[in-house]
Structure formats: structure tokens, C-alpha cells
Amino acid sequence: MKALAVTLASAALVVVGAGIAPAQDANPEPPSAADTAKGLQEWERIYAVFSHPRCANCHVEDDHPRWSGPEFATTRVHGFNVQRGLDGSGMGNAGLRCNTCHFETNSSVPHGPPGNEKWQLAPVEMVWFGKSSEQICAQIKDPQRNGGRSLEKVAKHVHEDELVGWGWDPGPGREPAPGSAEETFLAIQRWVAAGAPCP
Ligand code: HEC
Ligand code: HEC
What we know:
Elements: H1 2-24, H2 33-50, H3 53-56, E1 66-67, E2 76-77, H4 133-141, H5 151-160, H6 162-166, H7 181-193
Antiparallel strand pairs: 1-2
Helix pairs in contact: 2-7, 5-7
The protein binds heme C (2 copies).
């Protein structure tokens, strides 16, 4: 009889616990339609940056970085058969590492190699080149594919990382990515506050 009383008491606790659980949930309400619409507007700003050649040319699926500039009718595969290393390294193969040609700063002549001390391809799972807005959005939100980052950390990376920052200071003859690192950081924060909707 005593055992039954204890069981009943703990069952009651479970019920009480279940009753208060939703109130403790940080985000119980689904975002309103107005929030979603605002979030999608912010996403368009973010997408314009991530899909821009200054960003997408290193975030490729087929291990070949891309070149593009005003003189090229279309973006094309990087010359010299440059590609990801056989060991998966974003720095390329031994003998033709990125930093053979890409130095710490931009070359000052048009068509000279742009520069940054971390210059290398993005990891294979971070693919934007040739991907739709929906696909890029899903990738950025997926910790399995974004380097294990929360969206706050993705925003911070855009704000602070020097390789990302290169996209707004790409050297002579190259159009910078739209806006600035600061504006993109703020747009990501507003997008997250609106529930981070994807198209
Ligand atoms: C020279 C090649 C290169 C260029 C150009 C480049 N990236 Fe990347 N990107 C990388 C590498 C390498 C990583 C992996 C770094 C890490 O995870 O710490 C990365 C990772 C990221 C990440 C974190 C992972 C993710 O999927 O969320 C973001 C965000 C990002 N880049 C944004 C940008 C933006 C925005 C631009 C343009 C303004 C840009 N990148 C241009 C190479 C590049
Ligand atoms: C043999 C020299 C050489 C090597 C090695 C090399 N690059 Fe380049 N890269 C260049 C030159 C030169 C340009 C400028 C081309 C132009 O603007 O016409 C360039 C441009 C680029 C661009 C274009 C930037 C843009 O947005 O238009 C990317 C991306 C790039 N390289 C990535 C890489 C990566 C990643 C590696 C290593 C895996 C690498 N490169 C290795 C010479 C090289």
C-alpha cells in the first residue's frame, strides 16, 4: 500500500511537471505570419551576399574554385587545374598550394591573385555555388554542415572572420559583395529574431 502511494505521488509530480513544461519553453509560439514575411525579406539580403561570386567562388561542390570578373561572360573554373587536395585539404595539393600564388594581401594589379593569410577552399559540406536560395538557407541552418555553429555563431563569423571580410575588399577589378560585413551581420540577427525562415 505504501509503495502504491509513492507511485501515485510520483505520477502526480509527473503530471504537474508536464503541466508547467510549456511555460518554461523559451520559444513556445510559432512565429507569426508577419514575422515570417519580415524574416524572408532579411533572408533575401543575406542570400544576395552568400550567392555573390565573391563568396560562392570558394564554397563549391566539385572541389574547383571559380573565377569571375567583369570581363568574363560567365563565372568559370579556376585556371592552372587548381583543386582541393587529394587529402581533402582546402589548401590544394602539395606542390600547388593556394599560397603559392595567393599571398597575405591582394595583388595590386588587375587579375593578380587576391590575398588573405587563410586563403583556401571552404569545406565540402558548405556548398553555395550553383545552389538555390532554399538549399543555401538549409545548409547554413544545419550544424552538421555549418561547422557545428549556432546561427548566432554564423552571424559572428560573418562579422569577424577576415577571409569573409575579404569579400568586401576583393582587390582591383572585382565587384565587392553587396553591403558590408556589419550590415550582413545585422541582417542575420534580424532574420534569426524573426524565426530564421527559409524560402
Ligand atoms: C577564399 C575562400 C573563401 C571565400 C572567398 C569565402 N569563404 Fe566562407 N569559408 C571559407 C572557409 C575555408 C570556411 C571554413 C572556415 C571555418 O569553418 O572556420 C568558410 C566558412 C564560412 C562560414 C561558416 C560556415 C557556414 O556554412 O555557415 C560562413 C558563414 C562563410 N564562410 C561566409 C562567407 C561569406 C559571407 C563570404 C563572402 C563575403 C565568404 N564566406 C567568402 C572560405 C571562403
Ligand atoms: C598558380 C597560381 C594560383 C594557385 C596555385 C591558386 N590560385 Fe586562385 N587565383 C590565381 C589568380 C592569378 C587569380 C586571379 C584571376 C583573375 O582575377 O583573373 C585567382 C583567383 C582566385 C579566386 C577568384 C576570386 C574571385 O572572387 O573572383 C578564387 C576563389 C581562388 N583563386 C581560389 C583559389 C584556391 C582556393 C586555391 C587553392 C586551392 C587557389 N586559388 C590556388 C592564381 C592561383
